[in-house]
Amino acid sequence: MATKRIGILTGGGDVPGLNSVIKEVTYRATENNCEVFGLRLGWQGLTHLNLDDEKSRERYVLPLTRTNTRTIDRYGGTFLHSSRTNPSKMKSLPDFLKGRDFPQREVTKDGEKTTVYDVSAQVLKNLDALGVDSLIAIGGDDTLSYAAKLHALGVKVIAVPKTMDNDVRNTEYCIGFSTAITRATDAISRQRTTVGSHERIGIFRVFGRDAGFTSLYTAYVASIRCCIPEYKVQLDKLIDLLITDKKNNPSNYCLVILSEGAEWEGYKAQEFGEADAYGHKKKANVAEALSDEIKRRTREETIVSDLTYDLRSGAPDFVDKLIASTFGTMALEAVLENESGRMAALVNGCYTMEPIPDPALGPRHVEVATMYNTERLRPNYANKTGMPIFLTRA
Fold first, then answer.
1. Which of 1, 142, 156, 229 could form a disulfide with 261 if both were Cys (CB 3.0 to 4.6 A apart)?
2. pLDDT, tens only, 331-380
């Protein structure tokens, strides 16, 4: 008989490395006589699971074994699939829950009011019915915010941070970050030939709604200008720097990379579409907005390249596989020790278990004073002696 029944899920956007965590948890669990099953489609696997319906069980509950996880770490994405479901803010209920008396409230976004339901009672019911002793949640700020709520409700939860934005608090590294910035650097290196051939200004956009780590670190190794959400640049200054870079380049071109949430004085990041379960709308392409401003103010031509989704696709690099596998082992060890409310993390360059971040604090941000040169609008390269490998502290 299994000593523990462990559930595992992946929520939010996919990143390379998720499957390495799933495989490592499964392998280490079976070595310790534990039973593991995946909850498919993130938190939806616990809100939409109808245990009285066999088809629902098949859709949302997947037993994990050494056989069906043996090769998954060779690929990107998530073997368990994902969603942006937020059990505490559901806009609609699955059919089998309609008519049930769940707590509800109104939320307002951009003047629009929406009624949302908190179906945590159903989540707890399903966890109990499944006999889950511990739950391992892999995700970013949004996914882990609900993991923190479950911990507060008495569920044993262990977290693993993932997001290529690298903005989860209490850790210097999140799974997916290394692959993202490696791919961004490679894409920019390849596209230099096209931008240079046409003597234009190349403008690249990457993910980073609230934090600029992805654009900052890519700019660090690509040696280009960058704009991050944490600092509003002066548009005239940015354009002057780019024009100067272009003139000083023997090939008569220049490059700049922007986080999706970057802004300049007089410009606010534009959003569109319906807000997701965590209140986020899609960001309009700030690179296109900058391109329009450059064309309006100068005679220069631009090339805009949106790198976003390409950076989270495909297999993980070595760093992400290493850290993901290690985080998976750490998560399983925490389960075996009956811990809860803890998260696998890197702090001061060392592996450690930290508290799941307080959702009220929001995402981690780039420390502008030490990491971003506001005069040159590029990373700060100085004074790195003694810093951890990723040049920032949790």
1. 229
2. 999 999 999 999 999 999 999 999 999 999 999 999 999 999 999 999 99
**Cα(25)–Cα(202) distance, integer angstroms:** 42
Burial class, 100, CB count within 10 angstroms (exposed 0-12 / middle 13-18 / buried 19+): exposed
Please spell the DSSP secondary structure of 27-56, one letter per residue.
Answer: HHHHHTTEEEEEETTTTHHHHS--TT-HHH
Catalytic site residue from 142, 165, 167, 320: 165
Task: Tell me, yes or no, if 101 is annotated catalytic.
Answer: no
Phi and psi at 68, nearest 5°, equal -80, -5
Q: Each residue of 183-193: pLDDT tens digit?
A: 999 999 999 99
Query: Residue 264 in contact with residue 233, Cβ under 8 Å?
Result: yes
CA nearest 166: which of 124, 217, 234? 217
Q: Say yes or no to pLDDT of 3 above 90.
A: no
Q: Please give the backbone phi and psi of residue 204, each rounded to the nearest 5 degrees, phi first.
A: -110, 140
Classify 278 as helix, strand or coil.
Answer: coil
Among 248, 259, 192, 178, CA closest to 222: 192
Q: What are phi and psi of 110, to 5 degrees?
A: 55, 40
Residue 367 in 3-state DSSP?
A: coil
204: left (phi over 0), alpha (psi -120 to 50) or beta: beta
With a CB cutoff of 8 Å and minimum separation 6, the contacts of 199 are 246, 251, 252, 253, 301
Tokens of 96: 């089998």
The one-letter amino acid code at 234 reads Q
Domains and CATH numbers, the chain: 4-175+316-361 (3.40.50.450), 177-313+367-379 (3.40.50.460)
Q: What six digits make up the tokens of 57?
A: 């069980």
User: What letter would DSSP give residue 233?
Assistant: B
Contact between 43 and 120 under an 8 Å Cβ cutoff? The reply is: no
Q: Would you mind telling me the total number of residues written for the chain in this entry? A: 394
Higher-scoring residue by pLDDT: 180, 111:
180
Residue 138 CB-half CA count within 13 A: 38
